[in-house]
Design brief:
Layout (H helix, E strand, L loop, with lengths): L18 H6 L1 H9 L19 E4 L1 H4 L2 H12 L4 E3 L13 H9 L1 E5 L9 E3 L3 E4 L3 E2 L4 E2 L14 E4 L2 H8 L9 E4 L10 H4 L1 H9 L5 E7 L16 E7 L2 H7 E2 L4 H13 L5 E8 L5 H15 L6 E7 L4 H10 L13 E4 L5 E4 L2 H18 L4 E5 L1
Parallel strand pairs: 1-2, 1-3, 3-8, 5-9, 9-10, 10-11, 11-13, 13-14, 14-17
Antiparallel strand pairs: 4-5, 6-8, 7-12, 15-16
Length: about 375
């Protein structure tokens, strides 16, 4: 018999189970979990779960059974609960934007999704449609894509009328044709999953659909509660990663890139999910080829088994509005948002954003597409932007 490989697994032990079995066969997933499927050792400090300083419930949220389920979870964690007298959030404003940010980022608010949330919008190239189970994120990424996109203080709002949100999705499916739904546009669903259980409920729902497929992405890593769900291959789990200088300096309050990749490995090997890696926001930092090569090598170390794997490549960009918000939130940021080093890109509605020039974009794209093809010949790059 051949000796175990560098991951402590006998050759072909994992690959003898088909992707189908890893997706659909709970017994196979449990057998894989009992095996030694850890990746090459690397010391990692485990990130902490985000715990809000206070949890607000509106009356409408408490009228919802899912809202009561969230309340029971929060009570089980001994977090302070405030039941509001009206369906309006108050007490989030500080003396300046920085204080407002601090108060809001330490607050979880359980509310109900307004009627506007039931009219879905397309979200190309990520998915056919986007829907929302929450708005706001517990992370502190200094390039935050939500800056300027959501109005008001950046409090983390979770929707208590989740069953109605899920029921509405069927109206958008195309019978006989795969329809994809993105749930991570305005939140990081894994970062608050221990408080809500909403991501697991979405995965269970899509596991019952014939033509509906769920996509989510995270910078967090606590996936234990997702490993045994009946997803039936209808949920693609993705992590967002970046080169070490970007991740370590600009992504506060999140799991390390190593933790994220380790969790993705578990979701593939133990959970049997289709997988995805989002590399974003890509930046031409000093020695960027070296730093991103190290990231790609580690990705190759950890995702070293047969799986349904996709990649999404997103370069850094910002708008005048997002820059203003981010500088209020992070006045000492080292993030490069110098307009003179960028070019303006406009959309059909007249909006503008600052992106890298064509030469830099071409160099970045060619590098990633070449290096990913070397390491992941079976992987698929969905898009570059």
């Amino acid at each position: 018999m051949e000796p175990p490989n560098q991951n402590g697994v006998e050759p072909a032990t994992v690959d003898r189970f088909s992707r189908f079995d890893r997706c659909h066969n709970k017994e196979v997933r449990q057998r894989l979990r009992r095996m030694v499927v850890t990746a090459p050792a690397r010391e990692v400090r485990e990130s902490k779960l985000w715990m809000p300083d206070r949890v607000l419930f509106t009356p409408a949220a408490l009228d919802e059974p899912w809202g009561q389920q969230i309340k029971a979870r929060v009570q089980g964690l001994n977090l302070p609960i405030e039941e509001l007298p009206r369906n309006r959030l108050t007490g989030l404003r500080g003396e300046d934007e920085r204080e407002t940010y601090s108060i809001s980022k330490r607050t979880l608010a359980i509310v109900t999704a307004p009627p506007s949330q039931f009219k879905l919008s397309p979200i190309p190239p990520s998915a056919d449609w986007q829907f929302h189970i929450a708005e706001g994120c517990p992370g502190h990424c200094q390039y935050c894509y939500l800056a300027g996109s959501l109005s008001g203080p950046p409090v983390i709002r979770v929707y208590a009328n989740l069953p109605q949100i899920l029921e509405n999705l069927g109206r958008y499916e195309r019978p006989g044709s795969e329809t994809s739904y993105e749930v991570s546009c305005y939140t990081d669903p894994l970062g608050i999953e221990h408080l809500t259980g909403s991501l697991a409920e979405c995965i269970r729902y899509f596991g019952t659909r014939e033509d509906g497929y769920l996509r989510w992405v995270s910078k967090f890593s606590h996936v234990e509660g997702l490993l045994d769900l009946p997803h039936n291959g209808h949920t693609r789990c993705r992590v967002s990663v970046n080169a070490a200088p970007v991740s370590q300096r600009l992504e506060g309050g999140t799991a390390s890139a190593e933790e994220r990749l380790q969790s993705l490995r578990r979701l593939g090997l133990e959970g049997g999910y289709p997988l995805g890696i989002v590399i974003a926001p890509i930046m031409p930092i000093d020695n960027w080829q070296e730093h991103y090569t190290q990231l790609l090598d580690r990705m190759s170390d950890l995702i070293d088994f047969d799986c349904d794997l996709t990649f999404e490549l997103i370069s850094h960009r910002f708008t005048p509005g997002s820059k203003e918000v981010l500088l209020n939130w992070y006045p000492n940021t080292k993030l490069d948002m110098e307009e003179s080093s960028r070019v303006v890109k406009r959309n059909k509605f007249g909006g503008m954003k600052y992106v890298y020039d064509a030469k830099i974009m071409r160099e970045l794209r060619q590098f990633f597409e070449r290096e990913l093809a070397k390491r992941f010949p079976q992987g698929k790059v969905l898009y570059w932007t």
